[in-house]
Amino acid sequence: MSRRAQTAGFMAMKGGGYYSRATVGARHAIDGAAPLLMDALARMDPPDDGRVLTVADMGCADGGTSLDAMAALLREMRRRAPSRPIHMVYTDLPRNDFGQLFRNVQHLADEIPGLYILASATSFHRPILPPGTLHFGFSATASHYLSETPREISDHVHMVGASGAERAAYVGQARRDWEGMLLARARELAPGGRLALLNFGIDEEGRYLGSTGGVDMFDTFDALWAGLRDAGAISAAEYAATNFPQGYRTVAEFTAPFRDPDGPVRRAGLRLEHVDTATVRCPYAAAFAEHGDAARFAREYIPTLRSWSEATFAGGLSPDRPEAERRAILDRFYDAYEDAVREAPDGHAMDYVYCRLVAAREPA
Amino acid sequence: MSRRAQTAGFMAMKGGGYYSRATVGARHAIDGAAPLLMDALARMDPPDDGRVLTVADMGCADGGTSLDAMAALLREMRRRAPSRPIHMVYTDLPRNDFGQLFRNVQHLADEIPGLYILASATSFHRPILPPGTLHFGFSATASHYLSETPREISDHVHMVGASGAERAAYVGQARRDWEGMLLARARELAPGGRLALLNFGIDEEGRYLGSTGGVDMFDTFDALWAGLRDAGAISAAEYAATNFPQGYRTVAEFTAPFRDPDGPVRRAGLRLEHVDTATVRCPYAAAFAEHGDAARFAREYIPTLRSWSEATFAGGLSPDRPEAERRAILDRFYDAYEDAVREAPDGHAMDYVYCRLVAAREPA
User: Fold this and answer.
1) Helices A34-44 and A21-32, axial angle in degrees (round to 10)
2) In angstroms, what separates the C-alpha of A45 from chain B's closest C-alpha?
3) Distance separating alpha carbons of residues B96 and A98, to the nearest angstrom
4) For residues B341 and B337, what is the distance between their CA atoms, to the nearest angstrom?
5) Nearest to B133 among A52, A99, A117 (CB)
């Protein structure tokens, strides 16, 4: 769902090779991981034995940002094992726009011989495929979505700004979800299969999405939302009920299940082959550095923030409010963010910070 | 796409067990075929060998009308082969509402152990799955949609009313599509696999959907559309360009590929196990026989006709017409149909006429 806002339809409208800035960061992060995928496939070295190979993109949204990377992976798989049919399984939650997904990716089946495209609406917190039938699992910009929101955060809208027991609740939920997701994948991976995961997370220097040394994006969200509370536009209960259902994990948290030789993930046969972090510069901030027009920066930047954050802020508002009133509050909120960027643009940026992991499934 | 109009969401809204009349005919036809499915599964007698079994519902629309039949088939498969994971693959064209499909069927994965639900947007005129990997293929109320419209029909809107070279063009396209569909299935069926197909068609007495001895539905469509042409509301070119992209086949046409021992379908290993025809009474006409209110019959009956036919009539109109003008023409058209039913209700009925076939895949 995190890549929901990625507008491959818009890309198609603009013609091949064009991508809107709203998608270019996540796409660059995935394209930048292509060598990791190719190296993992080389180590996997699938025998050309005619049996079905299965690839999955879990949390695929509309398939737009991973399209080039998946096409490259599938072509290399085709080259290495010409006799093997390939199942390409795109997965996301039932509310995903699967029609748009199919319209974006279906052409791959015409371009790559023996490729069969499928979709699943099973959450990656649960088994998606039968045991031992997945050969290459991929997931990008998705695992930070928690299976449930553990509790309200009293003084912030995101767990990165929470503290004490509130922060611990999110860290704990993120730990359980991560281990559960790895165990679900370990169960469905074939021996020798690989898992390549690009996750929003907290890097070795404490940086995360929108927090890389300039103006902190989630702190800005929080300050403006608290401002609406202080101005009486929203209630204290609505402010408290507004929490991103996300958990950003540190590199240590991502790798912990692989470091415990007696833990369930290692016992299930998963072995960590690679971990690193990567940052992709905010395309709007980069463009602003070129054009220097603060009003344009603010006007172009806010819609992409709104595209993935609005559901969270809307979800915090009381269901008793009429629809028009909710819309007015949200408009006022994002207008305030646009004003803030226009008036003091320096340092605003939604830089992407990823923790990238590759794991292998050994025989149990 | 043919079952697009089936409103499982509406069903869900009304609570378990409720189905609107718009879906009940197609659902009854499928439920009535459950013994055919169970018998085919019994003959197939899948060994309990732990390998993945794959079932497909091809042309599934939102999965609503086949839900009970598929659930029964999957439960019986689960009982017969407890160790085998089951892939249930729902297929339709990319413009299908796959989100609604998943919302309708996803619960089956919670109810039936070892069931994995997938979707494909590959046309059933092409290979959907890798060779030899399909164990039970099902398709209902779908195969009458042709892969292309062969030509315009000068004096009718549907091939059932066409004659001469025009009718022959549709019959030929329907024959090629049927053979192509069977060959695509033969390729993907595992040896011993089964195919159960419920097709709109023309029975031994010449009956077909909406033409079972009373007022002919497609003739009524045509007369009213020609009336708009004669009244100057649509052009002669628009009338001629309005053609259902469908081919209704006779029983002889459905069975022909199986009767030719040297033909490609038999050579591909497909053998016909069962063929019959079945008719399901129009639920609106049946209700009218009870309540006797002509205005109510007309009011309730026309929306279901409109739900699956409007795209064809809209498609015949010139793209130069403004949207509001197109809407007005279509409203006038369906209002005229409602008037006709209200003024002379007797004999109006969309009775369903099916040709039902079961085939087996033998070793090539």
Assistant:
1) 30
2) 21
3) 9
4) 6
5) A52
Chain A, chain B: beta-carbon pairs less than 8 Å apart: 74
pLDDT in tens, A122-172: 999 999 999 999 999 999 999 999 999 999 999 999 999 999 999 999 999
Give every residue of chain A whose pLDDT is below 50, as ranges: 1-19
Q: How far apart are CA B101 and CA B120, in angstroms?
A: 11
Query: B81: which 2 tokens?
Result: 């082969």
Please indicate whether, in this complex, the C-beta atoms of A122 and B99 are within 8 angstroms of each other.
no
- Which pLDDT value is given to residue A4? 35
**Looking at chain B, how many residues does it have?**
364
Q: What is the pLDDT of residues B176-223, one digit of tens each?
A: 999 999 999 999 999 999 999 999 999 999 999 999 999 999 999 999
pLDDT for residue A5: 33
DSSP of A328-345: HHHHHHHHHHHHHHHHS-
* Structural contact between residues B245 and B177, judged by C-beta atoms closer than 8 angstroms: no
**What confidence score (pLDDT) does residue B4 get?**
34
Q: Which residues contact B194 (CB under 8 A, 6 or more apart)?
A: B40, B41, B43, B44, B135, B136, B137, B273, B358, B359, B360, B361
Contact A116 B103 (CB under 8 A): no
Letter for the amino acid at A11?
M
- Smallest Cα distance from B11 to chain A, Å: 18
What are residue A88's DSSP bridge partners? A55, A117
| 3-class SS of residue A31 | helix
At A204 the three-state DSSP class reads coil
Give the list of residues 6+ apart from residue B186 with CB closer than 8 angstroms, or none.
B265, B268, B269, B270, B361
Report CA-CA distances (Å) from B72 to B35, B68, B78, B203, B319: 10, 6, 10, 28, 46
Q: What is the pLDDT of residue B363?
A: 73
What's the length of chain A?
A: 364
CB contact under 8 A, A118 and B119: yes
Predicted pLDDT at A52: 97
Instruction: Tell me which residues of chain B have a pLDDT lower than 70.
Output: 1-21, 364
Question: Phi, psi at residue B275, to the nearest 5°?
Answer: -145, 140
Token code pair at residue B211: 């033409």
Q: Which residues of A touch B (CB under 8 A)?
A: 52, 85, 87, 89, 94-99, 102-103, 106, 109, 114, 116-122, 127-131, 133
* Rg of chain A taking only CA atoms, in angstroms: 21
Report the predicted TM-score, pTM, of the whole model to 2 decimal places.
Answer: 0.92
Q: Which residues contact A287 (CB under 8 A, 6 or more apart)?
A: A21, A297, A300
Q: Report ipTM (2 d.p.).
A: 0.90
CB contacts of A103 in chain B (<8 Å) are: 94
Give the Å distances, CA to CA, from A158 to A9, A216, A227, B7, B170: 30, 12, 16, 39, 61
Question: Which residues of A are less than 8 Å from B131 in CB distance?
Answer: 85
User: What confidence score (pLDDT) does residue B364 get?
Assistant: 57
Q: Which element (helix H / strand E) includes A4?
A: none
